[in-house]
Each structure stands twice: as structure tokens, then as C-alpha cells.
């Protein structure tokens, strides 16, 4: 049976457990588990890192640990009983572990490895702590090290700053907020700025000396040298090197390494150097040969210098190689370093080219003890300490030092009878009082131990040697008296045995008879002659002699004679010995009582370092004098005491204060001194007001703290001695003293007066007196002293400095021991609050105010945890009453103040804000229910309460700001939020009670809601973004504060009642932001508010348009910031739909919710696509989807324009310049050529509408140019030129015309690549919403073929599966949770047949029309129907033709558009055969034409094509068609195909005719080497004719030849192939043939054969309202396939064009309807008529005044046009008034024609533009011109030749939607055409012929105007540019019109319009202001 555990609550897993048993919980080693229940060897519980999953596990696998249990029961939490540092370490390492792996994933290798090392280090330290064998100090060091490492890691990983006290984490609930803030700030400061160290140390490690000429041992001396004062700063560091230049004792590191200690900051400057002197030990001359002489001398070798400043910048780890220099003459040796520093090159040189000293140099900063901890290895390994000469900047008590430094300066010696100068060596000895040599007390420097003697270096042949060698004599203090130093001088001979011969000596005693030591400075010593060592054995003999020339007796003439002298410099650094006689006189006052007065007077002149050396002795002396003769010397002793006390205030001696404190506590014995001290102190205080000079009095008051210490200690000693006598007298004295103090403090003075300054001095020291007084007086008494003293300060003080000091005094009071006691606090608090309030109200000294307040509130918290609850409550009440209001005002003031400039000021400014905030939070946290009630009742009126609430809400908003605290202060932010939400809950009651119903106040409620929303949206409360452990901690401690605040908002909202209307729609945005927070409970609480808003809005205005508008606006901005998710969309939808089920306005509500939900879908897709790393294609597609949604469904113009620009930027980034142009054109179309001012918007400045439109035009033209879409650019150039012309801006007009001309040049000169088009299907639920289960056609990139495109799509959608078939997928694929891609190539069906079917139009121009403005695409799939005839497969070869119609034409605003409609037709074998032969005929014609017009570089393409056709025909190609379709069986079975069979026969004859003509042309141009092939072709052609049974062409063929344009064969309307001669065309009367109803409405189009060959589908086009025929045979199935035919999948088909015209009635039936269609709806040939055809020119009375429709709501109903689904589409056009884009399009064929000229007769123009055909049926000579529209347009061509890039028209024209004239002549029914080709024109009002069902097909579908050619609905009437309007004459004018002439004729408004024309709805005008 499972029973709850009592003690087994927490454990660590020892062995992994797989959890294979039922309900088993899998465990891993190291997991920590919380145990809930136990049962027979099993535990039940959960792993702490995943508390949601509970299970069972064996108890033997768990190591139990002690733990505390909080909240026993269901929600209990377990805290292990272990060191808090261990707990923190464990949890931190767990958090780091996960993040550490992420670093590896993100490739942040450096941090990854550093963190790894730190984690290992922490684990190591953790083991040490857990073992528990560390000493207390070591444990402290380890913990410090651990926490430093934890903080480093947290900072690197951007985790939170952990507040700590004594290495342990602090629980923010257990300390005051002010205390928490201090801890956080302290840690932040420590992290941010480390205080610059005042002391520095230089570490030196000697590695080796590298030189080529070594061989002798060396001594290396380092010292620090001041180049400015030319003196050494430190003693010398001495290293011995062996003959190889390496350290002599490598195992003793202290002999190679040293630390030059106690360098001040002033020593780290450029002119302070490390100087190295190197001495060699060996023979006198460096190059001497070895001889018998074994005597060795110390000789100069070299010197090196390096500046300390260089070490500050150099990398500390680098070794330095110092150059070693030698002096040119040895006499300069003493100053070689100075010469090197001064760069006196003539005096030294490099000692050798390769000589260098390798040393490691490193500057270390900080206290020496700190360095010992940080660089432990350095000190444990061994390092010698090299001291400064003299004391450091700060002298520490207890420091023992007694070093005498002697520098051997120079000597003056006589020759001594020698012919050459001597080689002098000095030997130095120290001898004690008994004349014994002191052992080991002569040191050359640190590093090497001291010796018994010291030998100087020897300078060769020099009687005036200068050594400048410093030696150190560390003689103990007790040996100083009587000791002396002896210098022996020897001549070192280089001859014979090289003996050293003594010739003299000097000596100097170390202490004078009066006890003073040898004074510092240079001493000239006498050299006494002596040649025998034995004569020096008894020192008593020579000690009686004079030692220095300075102390020679005046009468001693005997010693004055000798000229020999020796100079030394001595310097004593001692903490025990003095050279000062006055100091000794004072200390020996009893011996000379008469000198006491002088000694006390001279004390002030004695150096401070001498006084502190003998501090205790001096103080004993002073109090001794005071006790013995207080009357006589009392004042002097007092002044001396004041001098000493103030001396200790100096930073150099401040560390001696503890020495004085110890003296007072332990050694002071002046039990009677207090009377004299009080008396003198009162005497001084009483004279303050009257005294002229206050300096001395100020010094006295400055020392008052220690004076009081002496007074109190003296009184205590007296009480102890006497049993407490004279107590009352003492108290009276103290009270009188304080009365005097209060009197002088109460004086009001100006700030400059000396008294005011004296007051300031006293106030600075006064708080230090409290602790002394407490030793004798009670707490209440001392508090009384303090209150009365502080209370006497004048309130209206003029002195600013005194104000600041007063506050400092208060601050110290609050921080003192006195204030900590609750008893004294009651007494002091009112005074403190009064002063504090006055300062804060005036906003003065805020830093100090914050400090005081912080201290006060820190104490309250501490007390609250104790017992004194009522006292604390009373204090809080007092503080709230006095300071809460002023505190709020102060925070507001500071926050709104501009930030100060300096960084230091800004830091201080920020600190004070933070401190005040902490104080406010601490105060609010202390307030209980009672305090809040009292606070709210204290407000006298509603207005004051209102102001208070507004103020506190505003302050809370400031506290929530992200910049309030540093970003890693999460702990502080959570505490802040907890306080805020608690306070808000209290204040919301006040809001409900006082500001509802009649007393409703919008401002307060608005402020409340605004605060609540900001509160919920804070980043630090978004728990989802935190790690699980951090989230768990926060939830356990505070819960989810967002939900609490959300519930409070909902509750307050419900209370509002009808006042809710005040917040609609203002609060929709903020509340929406709250609901987007990913917290389910919060969403459930907040989303219903929207239903409430809809309901109230419905009641008020009958709809909720405002709610909808605001929701949509805010959704966009919020979701683009990353808020919201799919779950939110579903929740929003479901909650609101459920809420509105019973509402009367349910339908409109559902509509709104659906709209918003759909918008969310798109916005979420958009956000996902815009993520970094997503491909541009996806981003563009998504943006297009969203843009269309804003336009068509939401009618949000501003959002629409914003997304236009986002899309434009995406296109530019992807270098889709054409698409970018089309995109920007959408905005351009919304603007007009008006002068209305537009506001600043996006990146556009404030400007007029005209200027913005001009700028857009120019930008679009530039992008069209970059995208090689020059034709579109030309149109915009023209429009701009018209504008410039209308304003007579000829300068810009000229530029525009030049730009236009350059675009024409580019069309003709530059090559354009022909794109491929691909159909892509996106199937499956995993695709984004805008792609899901839709099919698109995409325009490929340059050179991109199917394989590359497919690969690109799979890269964009890496999880997608490519489908391997082209069949439409079934429902399982649509509904699958996957991504399927179906991709295949499709062929464009061009709309502009007019240009494509003209001969003579260059390919550069045609290529544009083949691949631009394409709506429809085709894909053909060949298949066999019925049984396949193996002998002749053509009989059953059918083609399945799929035509895809897009929602918008390509190219447009995207590279891909959705397929709107798909049509499927089947093409019969016979129709297929007709198409194949038609295509081949067309190809042949084209090649022949190119060959004749010399457009071909060589004749090979024609040769190959002829060879392919003839070869196929001979081998049975055409014969197969004959077998299949010309047999009786087929004709009998398919009587309906009679006409088609006839057509096929004609085409076969036509092909033979063309081949014959082609061979004739071929013969003309064929090169010599290809003649045999030509002959073979001719022979095969005759065979082919005979196989077809053609001996001679039929009569009708011979009678009606058709002239080829430029000499190529053409077919005329309703004619059969003609007999052709290569010499030219002959006009013969045409004879009509039977028309083919099934074929005669089809138009043809061309396509790129080059592209088609490379794609799997090569298609031509044939379109009808009824059916579409196409064929896609494989090479094996086509009799006409050439040897260059495409792959088996290639469709090679082009439909036959119609040869007959529809009946007249049918033709005119839809003319009116077509006139009303948008360019998109109208047949494209209506937009692109052939301007060269006179029949297309409308007479003047047909056209009327050109007026454009308006969207102006002021127009009358007939003037309005019916709207299209798109809000701003410019599609609708009035009848009889061609729109801008209409004419725009018309003029584009080929590409943009010249303007219609002004004048000239129609006949003349007809002659110039159209071939004149004779009425006679006989032949006429006609120039080869483009035929008129009554001739036929050609069929499409499919070229199998890869050389061809375009196709030419073949001439059979039909009146399909691709080929219609605007105003055509009368046409007779088929078969009844007259013989003349150009019948007289008949007036038709803008008749546009089309296939009958074409308008119906497009009537209800008008997508947004994404094409330049579709701009035909501007919103205001604008006169058309004259280049684009249709002139009002029947004949085209000869010259371009002037602007004003045009406008007079064209600006008349025509009020009439066709009632059938759709009316547009009025547009919102908002865009106009953009």
C-alpha cells in the first residue's frame, strides 16, 4: 500500500532506471527526484526538471538527502538542506548544460570551449566543498572563486544577475527592496567598472642573456629609475648568471623572479624606466688570454633600459628582449643609463649585434594581499620582494622595516707613485659595537641573500672612479647603536699574480651620540692611509679618528692636507629609528622639562611619518604632560592632540586610526584628562561666533570625534577607579557643552561667512560622536542630544554647502548605531522626515535624500521580521504621510528631466532614480490594509484622490519601462511587478468606489487600463521565453502575474457598464495586444471583452465598423512584431463564435470574425515567410497574398500601400526589376497629376501629388529599363513628356524624349532572354495558407530550365515531395499532412497576335509580345484513342490540351500567379495533322523570308529544314496522312470532316509549293560545297511530288499566286496556296474557298521555338470559344518532323487560322459589350490594333470627346461606372471614350508607334500605309507591304530548329479576340467576298469583334490592375496625353499637337454613358493624403 513519505522527500539517482515496469519513471544518473509516496522498496515521485510526469522507481536506486518541505500537501516544494552555494551551483550547471550544447550548434566555438573549462573548474571546486576538508579561510576563497565563475558564465550567456550576500544567494522576500537594490547595484557596478587600483607592482622574471662573446659569469641588477628627477625609485634586484647566460640557480625561482612592490599611480609614466646593469666577473680585460692569475674582478659589461609606460600597452604575456648597450669609455659607466635614455648615441654602442637580455615583465595592479590570492602560483613558487626606496604612498601600522641604503658614489685618489692610474676596488664591511663583522648584513640587492662583505666593480686605470653602486644594509634596530660601516680601498694589479693591495680605508658610524641616526644625504668621507690589513683589526683605534670632512675639528690641520676623498649617499628607511632631534626632545621631556614648551610648538613641524612611527610614545608623552601640569600646558597639549588626530585624517596615514583606537581602548590611562578636554573644547566652541579667524577652531572641531573618544574613555577610567564619583558633574559639563554647540549652530549666516563653514565642519563629524556617548548615556538621552542639536539648525538656510552638509549629517545619523534602535527612531524620525521632505520638495540634493531614505527603509524591513510590529507600523504610517506624495512627484520629475551630458553625471542620475524607485517599492511593500485605508481616507476631495491615482499609475508605468533597470536584473523586476500588482489591487477598489456612474472619470480609468496592458506585456513576465527551471521558480514564488492582472482588467471592465463606450475603439488595440500573449488562461479571460465591445458598439451605432477597423489595423502591426500564433487564431475564432451565437447581430458578427481570422492566417504566413533564411520567392508570394487581401477584402488603402512598398523592396533585393516596376505602378495608379499636397509617408517627403507621381514614374521607368521591359518604360516616358510639355518644361521634356529614344535603341540593339514558364501545384496541408492546394504558373529566371526550376522549388520547400506525374491529384493528396509539389513546363499563349503575325517586324520586338502580358498557358499530352494502328499510328493519335488561365497576367507584381481556370479539350488526329503541317509551312515561310532578307548569317537552318521536310515526305510522312485520312473508309465514317480533309489536302499542296519556292531560293544562296546536297534535295522533291500524285499544281493554284512580303510566300484570306516564283509576287484575282466552321474562329500565335525545343512542351496556339485543337506528336509519329525534332514529349503544333469570317450579325453582336470591357476583358487585339491599317482608323464623329470615368461620389448616377471586385481597379471604361491604358495599349504595336500626325489626306495616308491593290482580277505589281486586315493573319509556328527565335505570320486572318480591328470595314459572309481586297469603310461605333462567348467568360472577373496595359480607370477626369489619346480626325495628323490645342478638343465632359456600363463605387480618398 502506498503511503505518503514523511522524511524521504528528496534524493539523487545513483543508477539509471529504464522504467520498463508499469507506471515506471525512467531515470538517469544525477537526476534529482522529489518523492511523494513509498511502498515496499519502491518510491513514487517525479524528476524535478520535469514535474508533470510522475511514476515509480526502486528506492535502492536513490541516495536520500535532507530537505526542507514548504507548503506541505499537494503543492509542496522541497529545498535541499545544503550549502546555498552548492544548490546554486547545481541548478546553474544544469541550465548551462543545455545552453552549452546550443553554443556548439550555433558555431560559437570560442565561448563553447571557455564555458566548458569553467564548468569543469566549478565541478572540481564543488567536489572540494562537498568533501568538507577545507579550512574556514580556504572554504571562503573557494566559494568566492565559485561565485565569480558563476557570475562570469551567467554574464556570458546573458542570464540574470544573482544578488548575493557573503557568496550566498539572497531571497528577495527576506530583505528590504532597498537592500536588494543595493546588492544588485553593487554587483552590477563591480561587473561594470572596476575601481582603478592605487598601487601597482612590477613582476620581473629573468630568462637568459644571449650573446656571442660570453664565457664569464654575470651579475644582473634591475632597478626602477625616475628619469625626470634622475634618481632610483627602488632598491636593486640582483640575479647571477652562469657562463652560458642562464640563471645560476634555476631551481630557486625566487632568485630569478621578483616583484617591485608599491609603485604609485604617479610612477606609471613615460619617464620612469626599468634600468638593467650587467657586470661580468672575470679578468680585467674582456679579451685577455687565460693566465695563471685566478683573481677575478667585477667589471662593467652593459646596460639595458625599458620604459614602464611600454608595459601598459604591451601584451603582458610576451617576453621582452632588451637590447644591451656598452659605454664607449668606462668613466661614463655611472651614467650609461642616462645616456641611453637621452639617446646620447656618441657615448654608448651595442655591446654586440646579437646581445639581448630575455626577461618577462608584467604589471600587476591592486593590493599585495589581493595579488597573493589571484596569483597564487606566483607566490607559492617563490618570488623575491624588491622594495621602494622609502615608504609607500600608504603606510600600514605594524609594518617593520629598518633598511639603510648606501650608494658608493665616487672617489678621488692620488697616483701613489705609479705612472698610470689605479684600478680601485672597494670592500664594504659592517661592524658592530664590539668591532665584529656582522655576518650576512651586506646585500647587493634583493634576490640573492646578503653576504659578509661587498666588492665594488673595478674601473680600469681611473683615479677618479664613479661607481654609483647601491648596497643595502638590513641591520636590526638593536644593533644600530655603536655599529659602523668600513670601506677598504685596494689597488688591483694586472701584473704577476694580480694581487689586490690595500692602500686606505674610510668609515662611517650609523648612529650619533644623541641617538639620531646617520642623516640622509651625501657624505664626503676621509680616506685614511693604511697598507696593512692587521692595522684594521682593532677598530677602536680608528673610530676615534674623524670620519667625514664635514665634522672635522677646525684646528685639525694634519688631516686637511690629503686630497683623497670618498663620497657616499646614505638613505635610511626605518619604522623605528629617527633622524629628527625635535622628536627625540619631546619623547625625553622629563629629562629636559624646560624644553617642553618648545617641543610642543615644534611638533607641528615634524614630518608626519616620524610622528606615526612613535604614535603611542607621543600620545603617552602628551597625556603625561597634561596630567602633571594641565594648567600650564593644557591648551598646548590639546592643540598638539588635535594636530595628531587630524594628521591621521591624511590618506597616507589613515591606516593608523586603528592604532589610535587600540591605544584609547588598551593603553590610554588619563583618567583625569576628561575635565581638561571638555573645558578646552567648550572654550573653543564659545569663541566661535566672535572669533575672526576660524581656521584653528575648524581644525579642533574636525578632531571632535577622537576628542570625544578620549573624554568618554577618560571618564570611564575615572568611574572605574572611583566607583562612579562626580557623575552628575560630568553630565552637567556635557549638557553645557551641547548648549554651547546648539547656540553656535543656531546662528544664521551667509554661506561665505567663516561661521557657516565652521558649522559645516562640526556637522560632518557630529554623527560619529553618537556611538561614544552611548557608552555612558542611555539611548533616549543620546537621541535627545541628536534631536535637539539637529533641530536647532536654521530652517531657511541660505548656504547651499551647509544644506548639503546638513543632509550628510542626517544620512550618517540614520546609518549610525543610534538610529538602528527602535526607541531612538521614534525620537529622531520626525526631525529626519521634516528635513528630508523640505529637500525633496525643492528637488535639491536628491542623491543624498535617496541615500537617507534607502537606509531608513532598510531598517524597517529588518524590524518587521522581528517583534516590534506596532512600532514599525507607526513608522510606515509617518513615512507614508510625509513622503509618499513627494516621492512619487520626485520620481516623475527625474524621469521626465532630460538626461545630463557627462557619463559620470548620467550614472549618478540613473542611480538616484533607481534608489528612489527602490524606496517607493519598499514603502509600498510595507503598507498594510490599514495603511491603504488611511491613505485613501486622507484625501480631502475627489480631485486630490484623482491626481494621486493618476500620479501613481504614471509612476508605475515608468517602473515597468525596460530601461528602468539593467536587462539582467530580472529579480528586481519581479519584485517590482509583485509590488505593483498588489498596490493596483488595493487602488482598483478606490477607482470603483469613487469614479463610476455619475462620478465617472475617463482619464483615471484610461490610465488604469493602459498601465494594466503595459504590465501584462512586459518581457520579464513572458514566462514562455524562460528556461523550465526559471519558470518553475517564478511560478512558485509569484504565480503568473499576467493572469492576475488580466482577471482584474476583466472585472473592472464588467463594472464599467455603459461607460464602456468611452473605450471603444481606443482600448481595442491594447486589449488585442494582451490577448496575443501566449498564455491560455489570459486569452480565455480577455478575448470575451471583444464580444462585449461588439455588443456595445452595435447598440450605439447599429454596426461595429469601428471595432473591425481597429482590430484589423492593430493586428497587422502586432503580428509583424512576432506576437500571436495559430492557437490564438483558433481560440479567437471559437470563443467569439460561441459568444455571439444568441445575439441578434449574429450574421454580421460571424462575418467580422471570419474576416479577422482570415487576416490572421495571412499575417501568420507572412511572418513565417519573412523569417531570416527564408527564400525570396516565398516572401514575395506571401506579400502578394496579403496585399491583395488588404485591397480586395478589407479595402484598407494605407495598409495596401505599405505592403506595395514592402513587396517592391523584396523585388529589388531579389533583382526582379520588372516585377518591382509593376508593384510600384500600383501606387502610381492611385495618384493623379494634381497639385494637392501630400503628407510625409513612408520614405516620401512632404510634396505635391504631381511631384510624387513624377518621382514614381521615373523610378518605375528606371526599373523597367533594368528589367529589359523597355516597351513599358516608353509608355511612361511619353506620359511624363506630355506632362512636361503641358507645363512648357522643355528642359525635362528634352531629357524625357532622349530617355525614350534610348529605350527604343535598347529594344533594337540589346538581346533579351526568353523566359520559361512552369506550372507548379502545391498540395497538402503543410503548405502556408496562401499556397495550400493551389496551382500557379511561374516565370522562370534567366537561363532557368525545368530541372533547375524544380531543384530551386525543392530547395525552397525542403520537406516537399516531388510528384512524378502530371495528372490532377486526388483528395487524399489534398488532405495529406505533407507537402507535395507538381511541376511541369507550360507554353505561353500570347495575346498580341497583331504584332506577331506581321512580316518585317524584327524578332527583338516580337520577343516582347511573345512573353509579356500572358494570361493563358497551354500544356499538351498526346495519347492514342481506340486501337493503335501499328502501320500508321496517325490514325489514332489524339492530343489532350490543357489551357490554364491566370488571375493576372505575367509578368506582373509577382513571378507567379494563381491559376483561376483550367480548360481541357481533345484534338482529333485529323486536326492534329492539319496543325503539324500548318506549323511546318509557317516555319518554312519564315526561314525563306529570313534568307531572302539576308537576316541569316548562314543558310544552314533553311537547308536543315528543307532536308527534314523533304526527307520525311519522301520516306512516307505525308503519304501516312494520305493513308490515314484520304481513304474512302475514313471519309465515309467521318462525313463531318470533309472540309478538314480538304484543308489538309490544300496544306499538303501548299507545302509542296513552298518547298519548290524554297529550293529556288536555296539554289540562289547555297555555297559551293553544299551543292551536292542541294541537288539531292531537288531530286527527292520530285520523288515527293510524284508520291503525292502532284504532277502539276491545280488550276486554281496556278491562277492565284500570293505574293510573299519581301519576296516570301504568303497566303491570303480565303485563298489556297499560290504559284510562286522566286522573283517576286504576282497579284491575281482571289477565289474564295469553302469555309470551315470548326476552324474559322481560331486565331494563331507564335512562340519561341528556341525555348520550346528545350522544354518538354513545344506548343503553338489555337483558341476558340468552343474548342481548342493542338497536337503533340513524337518524332516517330510525325511525317514532317525534321532531323532536329524535339524529344518525344515535345508538342509540335500550331492551329490553323480561320479563313472565313463570322456572319455580320454575329460579328457585331458583342461590339458594344466589348467596348465596355477592361483591357483585361477585351481581346488584346482591340488594345493592340494595327496602326498601319487605314481600316482601323475611326472617323472623327465616331470618337467623341475623350473623357475618363470618375470615382467621385459627387457625380450623378449615369456618370458612374459599375464597380469591379477590386477596390481600386482602373478597369472600367466609358463607351466611346478610350481610356488611358486603352490607347496606351493600342500604340504599342510594334512596340510603340510614332504619334498619329496632325494633317494629311486620308488617301495619302492610305497610300503610304497600305498596299494598293488593283480592282482587276489580273496580275498587278504591288510593293511587298504588310497586308490589310482583310487579309488573313498567320497561324502559329512551331520551329524544330534551334536556330530560330521567332516566327512570322502566314497571313490567314480571322476575327478572333486576338485579331480584331477597332473599326473595320463591312465584311460579307464567307464565300461571298468581292475580288477587291479593301472594301470602303462602314461606320461602326467602336465595334470590336470577338468570339461570342469571350465577354461572358471575363465578365465577372476583374483582378487588380497589375499590368501597364490595364490602366484604364483613373479616378478623376484627366486629359489624356496627346501621345495616348485618339485624335478627333478621320485622318492621322501629320505633326504632334501642342498641349493646349489638344486640351481644347479633348477635355469636354461627355455626360452620357451606356446604361450597361458598370458603375464603380466611390473610393476612400485617404490615399490621396499619402
Number of helices: 67
**Poorly predicted runs:** 862-868, 1595-1970
DSSP E strands, number: 42
Percent helix range = 40-55%
Report the end-to-end length measured between terminal Cα atoms.
77 Å
Largest sheet data: 6 strands, antiparallel
- Rg is 54 Å
- Helix-strand category: alpha+beta
As a percent range, the share of strand residues is 5-15%
Bulk shape: extended
Q: How confident overall, as mean pLDDT?
A: 76
How would you characterize the overall build of this protein?
The chain is an alpha+beta fold and 1970 residues long. The strands form 11 sheets. Strands 1, 2, 3, 4, 5 and 6 form a 6-stranded antiparallel beta sheet that branches. Strand 32 (1237-1238) and strand 33 (1247-1248) form a beta hairpin. The longest helix is centred in the middle third of the chain and has 28 residues, at 869-896. The protein is extended, with a radius of gyration of 54 Å. Residues 862-868 and 1595-1970 have low confidence and may be disordered.
What's the short version?
Helices cover 43% and strands 14% of the residues. By secondary structure, it is of the alpha+beta class.
Draw up the topology in text.
Blueprint: E1 3-4, E2 10-13, E3 32-39, E4 42-47, E5 50-58, E6 62-65, E7 67-70, E8 77-80, H1 84-105, H2 109-131, H3 136-156, E9 164-165, E10 168-169, H4 177-192, E11 199-210, E12 217-226, E13 231-232, E14 237-241, E15 257-264, E16 272-282, E17 297-307, H5 308-313, E18 319-323, E19 325-327, H6 336-342, E20 348-350, E21 356-365, H7 368-374, H8 376-381, E22 384-386, E23 402-412, E24 424-431, E25 453-455, E26 466-473, H9 477-480, E27 484-492, E28 500-509, E29 521-526, E30 528-529, H10 539-543, E31 565-574, H11 581-587, H12 596-602, H13 608-613, H14 615-628, H15 630-647, H16 657-667, H17 673-686, H18 695-702, H19 704-722, H20 727-745, H21 754-765, H22 767-773, H23 779-791, H24 800-815, H25 817-820, H26 822-841, H27 846-864, H28 869-896, H29 903-926, H30 929-937, H31 942-960, H32 970-994, H33 1002-1016, H34 1028-1038, H35 1041-1056, H36 1068-1075, H37 1080-1086, H38 1088-1101, H39 1105-1120, H40 1126-1139, H41 1146-1169, H42 1176-1194, H43 1197-1213, H44 1217-1230, E32 1237-1238, E33 1247-1248, H45 1249-1266, H46 1270-1286, H47 1290-1309, ...
Parallel strand pairs: 15-22, 36-37
Antiparallel strand pairs: 1-3, 2-3, 2-6, 3-4, 4-5, 7-8, 9-10, 11-15, 11-21, 12-13, 12-14, 12-16, 16-17, 18-21, 19-20, 23-26, 23-31, 24-25, 24-27, 27-28, 28-30, 29-31, 32-33, 34-35, 34-37, 35-40, 37-38, 38-39, 39-40, 41-42
